[in-house]
Design a protein that fits this description.
This protein is α+β, with helices and mostly antiparallel strands. The protein folds into two domains: about 180 residues, Beta-Lactamase, CATH 3.30.450; about 150 residues, Reverse transcriptase/Diguanylate cyclase domain (Alpha-Beta Plaits). Helix content is about 50%, strand content about 20%. The protein contains 13 helices and twelve strands. The longest helix has 22 residues. The mean pLDDT is about 90.
Amino acid sequence: MYADLGLFNQLLQMIDGDWSDSIKGICRHIHQNFNALGVALAVFDKNFQEFIYLDYSLDEEIPEKLKKIGIDFNLPAAMEILKKVYQSFTEILEDNIFSGMRLAKLALHYFDGDKEKFRIMQDDIGLKTVASFPVIESNKRYRCVFYIFTGREISDQDKALLDSYIPQLDVALEIVFLVRELYLKATHDSLTMLFNRKHGESLIASEFERVKRNHNPLCLVLLDIDHFKSVNDRYGHAAGDMVLKTISYILTSSLRKCDIVCRHGGEEFLLGLVDTDLTGALEVTKRLKDRIQNCTISHNDAIIKITASMGIAQYEPRIHSNLSMLIEHADKKMYAAKNNGRNTIEY
């Protein structure tokens, strides 16, 4: 699950000042001084493993040329390109130069092997080199990277040119970092880094309204860790925290990016399975149940085994007139699972 970047970007836009103009101006200056086709600056959150901010400067004619290869270029499209490339080429966060076969490999991955699109990118657009230059290493949580797109080779002098922009960029990006931290404190659980109850329910409420309009399926799952109090009593709260983090990892690594996961309170988690009917939700929860009960947690010299009870409720317009009723339905099913011996699923 990604963080809610829509809300984060809304918060950024509400901040007065010239920080945004400064970043745009730096991208334009580097674009001109490099005589490049384009320049982009991206910020990557290492904890969430996602890009959270992007700005760029591009030759005016390039967006029209990109339409020839099926790219309607704008800021959201640029972010999606970056995300897709990063999935297979994590080295774009490092100091790297992609040209020749390295560029071909990267581009053909993005174009799903379409050599004609790659040819247009090279011949019509003139892209021969993509260089990634990490900057501002002082903030250990974030990775800030310049991407230079050119029709020529990159020299050591080009790299040195970037250093002159760092002081100004550092000041501007502090706003991005600050807003990010405030956003996370307001919307995420500090231990598990999942959405907190308030924000998780807010996101699910948006999905609830959407499925009421388009009649797509929506299932909620309430998951409760079995005998969690016994873990705390026997092994200590540090062990309990480790269990909560482990469950959070299993949930986020098992579900889709579009699904919603929040810590609902204590050892309880609420899952919103988007566009998923009861049959699909049952398959998902069975996989989760197996992963959880097969998980082994080591704490000091102890080996901790855990299980979880889950209740599923599918949205039914005749039954659930509001989200609270749907959550209550999932809650009742979850308690039925607890009462029926735990480590089971009720629906």
